Amino acid sequence: MKKNERNVKWREGLKRSFELLILLFTIVGLGSIILSIVLRGKISPQVLEILQAMGLTLFPSGVVAFLLSRFASDITEILIMDTIHETMRDRLEKHVDKITEEVTQEVNQGLGAIHQEVKQGAETIRNEMARLSPLYVSCSKLGVEGVYLTRADALIAFAWFLDAEINKAHQKKPAKIWFVSSSIKGFLTTAVGTFRGREMIKGIAESGCDLRIMMTDPQVADRRASQERRAEGEIPKEILMNLALLKRVGVTRDKVRFYPGSPTVFSIATSDRMLLNPYPFETEAFTCFSIIVYKTIDPRSDIYNQYLESHFELPWIRAKEIPLEMWEGL
After folding, report:
1. Residue 181 contacts residue 214 (beta carbons within 8 Å)
2. If residue 146 lies in a helix (H) or strand (E), which one and from where to where?
C-alpha cells in the first residue's frame, strides 16, 4: 500500500516538473516573439531573425505540449472507456444474439416435439374411442354399470343400492332385496372398506323389505365340494351354520328357501340394480369378477330383466321352504 502511494507521488512530481519545463519553454518562446516586435529596427536583422525563429518555434509548441500534458490523460481515458464500452456492447450484442438464436431453436424444437406428442395423443384417443365406442354403446344398451375384479369390490359399490332399498322400506315404499347363493358365506363374511356383510343383512331383515334368500339345498351341496377342493360335508355344514346366523339377525323362515342345485351365478337383485358374480368350475365365486347392472327402459333387451325372471323368480317358485323342524333346531 505504501509502495503504491510512493509511486503515485513520484508520478505526480514528475508530471509537475514536466509541466514546469514546458511552461518555461513557452514563456521563453513568447518572450522571444515580444522582443522581436519591440526591438525591430534596433537590433541587427540576424539577431531579429533568431528571436523570431525561437519565438515561433517554442511558443506554439509549448502551448500545445502544455495542453496535451494537462488534458491528454483525460482524453485518453475517455477514448479508452469509449472503446471498452463499444467493445463490450458489440460482444454482448453478439452473445445475446447467439443466445436468442439458440433459445429460439430450442423452443421451436420443443414446440415441435410437443405438437408431435399432442398429435400422437389425439390420434391415440381417436383410435381408443373408435375401439371403445361399440363397447360403450353395448354397455349402455344392456345396462352394465360397473365391472369389478372380485365380489368384495363389487359389494362396496353395491352397498349404496342396498341402503337405498332399506331406506325405501323404512318409508313404507316398495323395496326388495333378493339373494341367489350357495351358502351366502361370501356375503356374510365380507368386511372391506365401509361394507360389513353381517351388519348389512341385519339392517335388511329389520327394514321389512321384500327379502328372499335362496341357498343350495344341503342334500345336494356336496356336488361342488370336489370342484372347489373342499372336504365332503363342509359345504352342507357351512349352509346350516349361515342359516342359523340369518335366523339370529332376524331373518324369518319364510324369507329363505333351498334350491335343489348349485347356482351358476351368485346374485343380488334390488328394485333397479343387480350384482352378478359367476361361479368358476374349481374355485369359490367371491374371489372372482363381478358386474353390476341396472334396469333399462327396455325390459326385453337388458341383463337385469333377463336374470330377474330366469335366475330369481322362476327358481324361487321351484325352491322349497326350510323344514320347520330344521329351522327350530338351528
Report:
1. yes
2. strand 144-148
Count of CB atoms situated within 10 Å of the CB of 65: 19
**Above 80 in pLDDT, residue 63?**
no
Locate 22 and state its grid cell. 514546458
Give the mean model confidence (pLDDT) for residues 9-32: 68
Angle at 252 between CA 312 and CA 266, to 5 degrees: 30
Give how far Cα 75 sits from Cα of 81, 127, 142, 161, 178, Å: 10, 76, 95, 95, 106
Q: Is the pTM of this model over 0.70?
A: no
Q: The cell 464500452 sits on which residue?
A: 85
Contacts of 217 (CB under 8 A, 6+ apart): 258, 259, 260, 261, 320
DSSP per-residue letters across 78-100? HHHHHHHHHHHHHHHHHHHHHHH
Task: Please provide residue 278's backbone torsions phi and psi, each rounded to the nearest 5 degrees.
Answer: -65, 150
Q: Which residue has the cell 332399506?
A: 166
Contact 253, 324 (CB under 8 A): yes
181 CA to centre of own chain: 42
Residue type, 106: E
Q: Among 25, 35, 36, 34, which residue's Cα sits nearest to residue 60?
A: 25
Distance CA 34, CA 41 (A): 14
The alpha carbon of 284 is separated from its chain's Cα centroid by a whole number of angstroms, namely 38
Lowest model confidence (mean pLDDT) among 60-69, 209-218, 269-278: 60-69
Confidence of residue 29 (pLDDT cuts 50, 70, 90): low
Question: How many angstroms separate the first and last alpha carbons of the chain?
Answer: 111
Give the DSSP H or E segment for 38: helix 2-38
Tens-place pLDDT, residues 133-191: 677 788 888 999 999 999 999 999 999 999 999 999 999 999 999 999 999 999 999 98
Closest CA to 68 of 15, 13, 27, 12: 15
